[in-house]
Specification:
Two copies of one chain form a homodimer. By secondary structure, chain A is an alpha+beta fold. Chain A is 29% helix and 24% strand. Chain A folds into two domains: 151 residues, PurM-like, N-terminal domain (60s Ribosomal Protein L30, Chain: A), CATH 3.30.1330; 167 residues, Phosphoribosyl-aminoimidazole Synthetase, Chain A, domain 2.
Chain lengths: 344, 344
Amino acid sequence: MNTCPVPLSEHKTIQMAHGGGGRLMRQLIDQIFVAGFDNEILDEQSDSAVLDLTSDRLAFTTDSYVVQPLFFPGADIGKLAVCGTANDLAMAGARPVYLSAGFILEEGLSVALLSDVVRSMRQQADTAGIRIVTGDTKVVDRGKGDGIFINTSGIGVMSSQTKPGPSAIREGDAILLSGDLGRHGIAVMTQRDGLTFESPVESDCDHLWPVVHALQEHGVTLRCLRDLTRGGLASALVEVAESARLRLHVSARAIPVRDDVRGACELLGLDPYYVANEGRMIVIVPQAEAEQALICMREQTISAQATCIGRIDGDGDGRVTIESEIGVKRILDMLSGEQLPRIC
Amino acid sequence: MNTCPVPLSEHKTIQMAHGGGGRLMRQLIDQIFVAGFDNEILDEQSDSAVLDLTSDRLAFTTDSYVVQPLFFPGADIGKLAVCGTANDLAMAGARPVYLSAGFILEEGLSVALLSDVVRSMRQQADTAGIRIVTGDTKVVDRGKGDGIFINTSGIGVMSSQTKPGPSAIREGDAILLSGDLGRHGIAVMTQRDGLTFESPVESDCDHLWPVVHALQEHGVTLRCLRDLTRGGLASALVEVAESARLRLHVSARAIPVRDDVRGACELLGLDPYYVANEGRMIVIVPQAEAEQALICMREQTISAQATCIGRIDGDGDGRVTIESEIGVKRILDMLSGEQLPRIC
């Protein structure tokens, strides 16, 4: 009686019953999620994971992922769901340690595709030393979802007593950018529009914690960290400027954008400063530590192209100014709406 | 330039741009979520919340909520999203402390309805002394979601070194049930089917932590706790029996089901033992402590009807047997699929 009448392998697609709390759901959890994420905390298969932590200061964050298409050059929704949430923890100066994974599956989803996503999540978690310790699965009727939505929430261990943030920023600080802009957005967008390039632009989706950790280890004063996701570099800079009530000034000449990305942006009518990234950040440090920070960042593959793009000005108006390639200065504002829907 | 061209109040429905990372999203977050959940940790509005915790042993859980309809007698998706996740923590013997809230909104959703849901979440969090400290919002195209999906992940503080669970169960232990069955499932189902009763059945959705806490305070040995959600009492019992590799025996005569719920179940062709609850649990305790535990549970409004429904038998076959009202003994198994889709 403990065997399910129909083995999961014979269900090639997700049924409503896979979310019903009965034998089929148990089977999906055991065969796909527990087998895929495999660790002793998750194996307990109770509704809560119990964590032993040595730190009494934690970072906690959540993100849902609704990207379309689910797979695109350089990444997929699973990789995104692990890196994206881990990066939010890293931006608080916290080492990502534990993730939860909540799946909302649309009836009819391919079980093989779900397995591929789970495998990708596991791989990214292993790469970063993160464990996926608790999860949940819901199934919605066909036409009430879109394949897979994933929520990951994360717990990170703070390695210092101070959390980097806009309030720590001071006049004269340097604004460092960890690499070239816009590859994630362009990778998703070209895939969606069926555009083909000679060599496809690959998403920059990756873990930022190793870079943050290296900076911490080198004793760099991390005034503020911000990953450049939805809304891109421009929105991140404006958010920081408004929160800090300081003026940020950057130079377009210093901001790396690859030629293929620039070309695709022109074709699609997008501004690369607003295009989403998933493995890029700005690091604001005291001017005196900028050189040391750049050397340290350039030792990491993901931030090998790190560069100083600007500084914090004294003016307290909370604006961002940018000097163009030809020396014209203008205000950089947040967009009202969005450039690219369903990008993460 | 820092003011949005169109105030949120003029957007009566959610637009794709509300999820785009720009000014409109900022406005939605500020006016609906930050204003609604209002606490100093969330107010920092960075991507991660930083938590100071005095315990080094935490429980961590996640759940997504996809219930339809969004509002039903006795509760709504917001109340469910707070109580459901808090209850998962309580079942680990942990005091629910912090929640995250991840929203997946469908384009065209009424902003007023979203506000009502947020208000309901806040009210339930306040009732239970829980703080919603971090969040995320995504918007999906019309027809790719279903109004609102909510993920809440929770962190709880373990009040003892041992987590209740099936492995702690011993032969002879008593199985206590905290109250009558099936009201949540019937409340949602009758609403969905447009059935009307003289007085509508209200969901039992509520917080279970106060009951667990009272039992802990009275020194009751909590061998195993399990809330009865999707799959109802029957699935919970079978899961526990299989994990513990022990036989559980219950008596139908002892299991309270209200007449209106029983009537609705007959009308809808449902078995109340499999119908979802959102404020009910089984509590497995040593036989010698059962009386004391029941007295303690009955002092709490939500478990005023607590009763002993069965015991743990010596047989190690991992099955559940039930003795019917007329004394016939049969095996109670998990359903293969589901009785009620989109119930939580």
